Amino acid sequence: MDITRLRDETPGCAVVNHLNNAGSSLPTRRTLDATLDHLRLEAEIGGYEAADQAHERIEAFYPSTARLIGARPDEIAFIENATRAWGMAFYSLDFAPGDRILTCRSEYSSNYISYLQVARRTGAEIVPVPDDAQGQIDVQALADRIDKRAKLISISHVPTQGGLVNPAAEVGKVARAAGVPYLLDACQSVGQMPVDVDAIGCDFLSATGRKYLRGPRGTGFLYARRETTAHLEPVFLDNHAARWTGATVYEVRADARRFENWERYYGGILGLAAAVDQATALGLDAIWGRVQALGGALRERLARVPGVVLTDLGAVKCGIVTFALKEGRHEAIRAALRERSINVSISTKFSSRLDMDGRGLEDVIRASVHIYNTEDELDRFVDALQAARRALA
Ligand SMILES: *Cc1c(COP(=O)(O)O)cnc(C)c1O
After folding, report:
1. Do 215 and 275 touch, CB atoms closer than 8 A?
2. CA within 20 to 30 Å of 125's CA: 61, 161, 249, 328, which one?
3. Could you tell me if 240 and 305 lie in one domain?
4. Mind listing the pLDDT tens digit for each residue in 128-175?
């Protein structure tokens, strides 16, 4: 990987030491231009006319995204963010009293809030599966909980609050063997590591544009496996998802675009498609190798710093590095780093209650690396962290 070139084609690299890639990563100039050029075209010739003119490039989003995750183009829906993509799948499922939703303890807040809402409405039960000794979902414990009541297996591949990578494919084997639908929140993994829907065996997968894919904000997508989800009618329909075929009848689209809605961010689709193509061209194996190496290098540096407690779990760790300081004051540290143009974020207990409460963590500092970060930036981050701690002491 040519890091100098990667940085040259990423305008933000000249401005910030960006270690908030799990929040929103820096796009390349090509991705930025794909979006901006379309916004300009809309302003010049009209939004509908611009969409007509860019039709072929907009359509190319579907095969590009399908290729990225080993899907078919008709299994991809463009949706404005990962949460809504996930919700379109989850809320389209039917639950009855006693039905069980099997999930992981590191599950993302928005997903868990949705389980709580649906459990309250329908009488379904939420079953958080215990973690194994390394903090990932215990696949045997999951298998032990499979019975007639299991209606959905739904987990986060990589949680928002740490370096953990859940064994998504092992979970998929359990789901396939049991014939239980499997919904995977792949928001932090798509773009960071190879993700193949057949190797994983999921029925639905949700992802966002702005995180490891380096796409624009306000973009995301849903994958819906054709063989297992074609019978599902989306929780919301409009005149894009369905056609009003007679005064009292409508017909729902057959492909995954039935989960979309009519109005969308065309500039964002074009930007996301550019970002997806770039990730594919670089190669997800190469991206994953670099991100893991940088993540490991950052953990090594932090492990040597007195008063830093690393908080990442998992047998496999990704580019999301989290830690706590013995003196706390994480938010003040984050703000002090921002003044030095170093971007990190804070994950609080509100992002993943079961995990954070279970470990007695109020919040952690999250420094998430991407391919364009350098070891020099990691050094400067650790130095600045220490300077900020001294200044606040
Ligand atoms: C960020 C995140 C989401 C939400 O993604 P949006 O695009 O903001 O909706 C969902 N799940 C996980 C694990 C995340 O980290």
Report:
1. yes
2. 161
3. no
4. 999 999 999 999 999 999 999 999 999 999 999 999 999 999 999 999
Is residue 108 lining ligand 1, measured as CB closer than 6 Å?
yes
Average pLDDT over residues 343-368: 97
CA of 155 to the centre of ligand 1 (A): 12
Ligand 1 within 6 A of CB of 351: no
Q: How far is CA 67 from each of CA 73, 84, 133, 216, 218, rounded to the nearest angstrom?
A: 8, 22, 35, 19, 21
% of the chain at pLDDT higher than 70? 100
16 and 36, same domain (yes or no): no
Residue 187 beta carbon below 6 angstroms from any ligand 1 atom: yes
Instruction: Confirm or reject: Cβ of 25 under 6 Å from ligand 1.
Output: no
Helices (H), ranges, 185-312:
197-200, 226-229, 266-282, 284-303
Model-level pTM? 0.98
d(CA 189, CA 121): 31
Give the residue-averaged pLDDT of 195-213.
98
Tokens 């989800």 correspond to 229
Ligand 1 atom closest to the Cα of residue 209 is 7
Question: Is the CB–ligand 1 distance for residue 212 below 6 Å?
Answer: no
Same-domain check for residues 375 and 275: no
- Tracing tokens 């391919």 back to the chain, one arrives at 371
User: Of 257, 281, 305, at which residue does a domain stop?
Assistant: 281
Q: Name the domain count of the chain.
A: 2
104: containing domain: 29-281
- Among 255, 281, 307, the domain boundary falls at 281
- Tell me: do 311 and 214 sit in the same domain: no
Q: Is 356 in the same domain as 379?
A: yes
Do 387 and 254 fall into the same domain? Answer: no
Cβ–ligand 1 contact at 368 (below 6 Å)? no
Q: What is the mean pLDDT of residues 266-272?
A: 98
Task: Please choose, from the candidates 155, 158, 154, 156, the residue with its C-alpha nearest in 3D space to the C-alpha of residue 192.
Answer: 158
Q: Which of 81, 106, 154, 187 to mutate to test the pocket of ligand 1 (most atoms within 8 A of CB)?
A: 187
pLDDT digits (tens, 9 = 90+) for 368-387: 999 999 999 999 999 999 99
- CATH number of the domain that residue 370 is part of: 3.90.1150.10
Q: Where does the pLDDT of residue 94 fall: very low under 50, low under 70, confident under 90, or very high at 90 and above? A: very high
Closest residue (by CA) to atom 2 of ligand 1? 187
Which pLDDT value is given to residue 59? 98
- Cα(392) to centroid(ligand 1), Å: 32
